[in-house]
Amino acid sequence: MKPFFFQIEQQESTFEPQEVNKSYPVSELSACACYGVFHEPTTHFVADHAVLFLYPWGQEYVRSHRGIRRLAMELQEKGIPSLRFDYRGTGDSGGSDQLFSIDSALEDAKAAMSWLLETTGARQVKVFAVRLGSLIALNALASFEELTDVICWDPILDGQQYLNELSGPHITSRLEKAGMTWVNGYPISPSFHDGLAKVKAHPQTLHANVVIYGAPQTSIFKKWIADREEAHLPYEVEHAQPADTQSEWGTVNTVGGFVNPTDILNTSLTRLIQH
Length: 275
What we know:
The chain is α/β, with parallel strands linked by helices and about 280 residues long. The chain has one domain: Alpha/Beta hydrolase fold, catalytic domain (Rossmann fold). It contains eight helices and 14 strands. A nine-stranded mixed beta sheet has the order 4-1-5-7-6-8-9-13-14, sandwiched between helices. It has a three-stranded antiparallel beta sheet with strand order 10-11-12. Helix 7 links the parallel strand 13 and strand 14.
């Protein structure tokens, strides 16, 4: 397990990640560095296969972290390298809360994918994405020919719908302060809010196989699936939930159970291992 920072540098609208071999003062990290953990196999290495993890946001990040870490460590033991990282403006990455936006997260995902491909030489990459991470994966990674599978756990397919969820009665704490909305202690900046409201997961741009776990069968979900079928693009749905299922991700009182169910993690691990 190798913690590090990779650099986000804008040159002619491209973002190239570079490993940073020195400690950066907080001021220098503010706009350029993502914190990542590279799980490099120590005994053997499957050279043509790697995995990228894309986290959700806020309370959902906290509640999915141990499950993602467990998957990464088990893949490492089986000789499969993987990368998990924090978006800029979140976690241990550089930047203030105001820096995080859907646009910066999309850029970070592309940079992380490029870094993983360059570092491992992998010819195939699978992505495991949770909630908002799914929306990021489905929009950011379509141009990577090496991407073969995207496993989406309870995916966000529509940014405005997600914002509506964050305004719902099941959210424990929501307040306005310093020009930002705070949900369960996590800030939503105006740029994050406005950008997210405009983003949807486009069903016909990603040619990799999409596996969906635990998604409520809402009208948005059904329309996304229908459009995917119309384009003859591969997808699978498992553990589908009724349309009126209330998400437990945003609450702070329900711990375990839905958040890290053993069956989804074990099934996902099997899929991530397969060539």
